[in-house]
Write a structure and sequence with these properties.
homodimer; 333 residues; alpha+beta; eight-stranded antiparallel beta sheet; 12 helices; 10 strands
Chain lengths: 333, 333
């Protein structure tokens, strides 16, 4: 079993919550004209650095909104706030700036690897550009002012998405949780807050934003992720050593089902994909974790509709998912 | 869906029960020398017509006996009677003559298709040869005398092995049973009396041997099989029309598991093989029913040990079964 962070860390994300000193906070921002003004100002500034798509949520279809949300580019709160909200998304999807969500600005930078430093530097660059065009609400004692006190101070949330089949299957994750909570970290399922741990994917992020510097926050998350990843790789090794035939059998059956089934629902797809990822990570199957992680996102409902070019019913989507997955996985072998 | 008897009938078998007038019945045959004399006499006569392997059960290993039993060439009663019992098996396995089982002679002819007439003619030929060398115990009123009264008269048992997934899955088989019983037929699982209906395989045979001529018995079985086969093909059609995607999905998943798994036990193997057979019968998969039926026999425990050249533990046999099946099925595509 090759032991690499790449087999554990799916992606790194840092987001900053900011508000402008001269505008009412979004929950009091009733003037749509004012809301649009913010969007226009930011779009103009950011387009100097990269090419951004501008989505005024009031004119984005439910289908498109679901697509963007599945790709972690926007949040449900942004959709709910559609009267005044918007998103600026860079073409490569690495940068997303949500405007008039809970705060005026939620800037995030996203990277398909484990590199908090790089991600933080990138989003800081964006942050500087924004702050130069519109001054932020900032308090000497409280730091950046936010709508919700849980974001006060740095307004920084560093999240790392982790694939943890070893810790999950060997029931170590539950034991690790209280320890991570004591470090001021939150662990939850990767796809939305209520989605459990589908695909054995977890988000680890800092709970605390106030009273610590950005560097301190990043270091706590970084250290925790390194520790979790080490534990994870050790547990995978044990999983395999415990019963190697059973381990290979499970991986190969998952691959066999995904490359042969005629229809598959999202839940079962995620179950088998976790095994296929484990198979790739352990050298049983060919392919890269990146291809598999991309496939997982591509096979979420709104992403399938997008690929299909038109919305599909649930049954047809299950057939589409099976067909697309079959081709994608076979192409990897 | 192509509609053919070949997709329903696995094999036809006719066996005749006979005893010799001048020897004590097997349950009273204490003289091993006398028992061997019968074997030698029959072997000498039969070897004029074909090449037979002679198995004195007293010197056949348990492993070899299990192998022959799995191939339906000998019975458990023959094994239990090993002190005096023997079997003569033609090289192509179409003819098996069990000696000193319940009766002195149980002659059977086996064919991988549905042709009771041909099978009966073949076994009659063998029967004539045997009766010329040693006269049978025969009574004008009772016909051929047998150890058990259920075989009196013709001593004839015609069995047809049927693959009935349509009738099984659509719960029609249970409704058909009383009707078949009224016709004087017995239906049971294909692999031994206690084995249920593994692989959705059934044996249909005549219960009554007395008071009907051979031709009448064969006709009852023939008509019943034709009727069952018609019903079966109709139910398969319905299974498919009910939900074609579900039908194809089940077939293709079974194929995916059997061509990818690393280990599989006999029970699960039979479950998936039934779906693969249905897939071949309905044109979803390539291959022939004959190849699949042969594979089913080849993957029974003692047959695997035989293929492997040495007995395997259950876990190793499950790995062997997976590997062999993977290659066999892939070669068919």
């Amino acid at each position: 079993m090759r032991a690499s962070f790449e087999d554990v860390v799916v992606s790194t994300r840092v987001r900053l919550a900011r508000n402008f000193a001269d505008y009412p906070f979004p929950n009091r921002l009733t003037d749509v004209g004012q809301a649009r003004e913010i969007v226009r100002l930011l779009a103009a500034e950011l387009n100097h650095t990269d090419t951004f798509d501008v989505y005024y949520m009031s004119s984005v279809s439910a289908e498109k909104a679901a697509f963007l949300k599945e790709r972690h580019l926007i949040s449900q709160d942004l959709i709910n706030n559609r009267r005044i909200s918007a998103a600026l998304v860079s073409r490569d999807e690495s940068i997303s700036v949500m405007i008039n969500e809970e705060d005026h600005v939620r800037e995030q930078y996203f990277l398909n690897e484990f590199n908090l430093k790089k991600v933080y530097e990138r989003i800081s660059g964006i942050d500087d550009i924004i702050s130069e065009s519109i001054p932020f609400a900032y308090d000497e004692a409280l730091g950046y002012l936010t709508a919700c006190p849980t974001n006060l101070g740095t307004g920084l949330r560093a999240s790392v998405m982790l694939f943890l089949p070893g810790l999950t299957r060997r029931s170590v994750m539950r034991k690790l949780m209280p320890y991570l909570t004591r470090l001021g970290l939150t662990v939850r399922g990767a796809f939305g807050e209520g989605s459990g741990t589908e695909g054995e994917l977890y988000q680890v992020s800092n709970e605390i934003t106030l009273g610590r510097s950005e560097d301190e926050i990043l270091k706590v998350v970084e250290d925790a992720v390194r520790l979790i990843a080490e534990f994870e790789l050790r547990e995978r090794q044990r999983l395999m050593e415990e019963d190697e035939v059973a381990f290979r059998d499970r991986v190969c059956r998952a691959y066999g089902i995904l490359t042969n089934c005629v229809r598959i629902d999202a839940h079962e797809f995620m179950l088998h994909m976790a095994d296929v990822k484990l198979g790739v990570a352990s050298g049983i199957l060919n392919g890269t974790m990146q291809e598999l992680n991309d496939l997982i996102v591509a096979m979420r409902p709104a992403n399938i509709n997008r690929l299909n070019g038109a919305p599909l019913g649930e049954r047809e989507r299950d057939v589409y998912r099976a067909e697309y997955t079959r081709k994608a996985l076979r192409a990897m072998q």
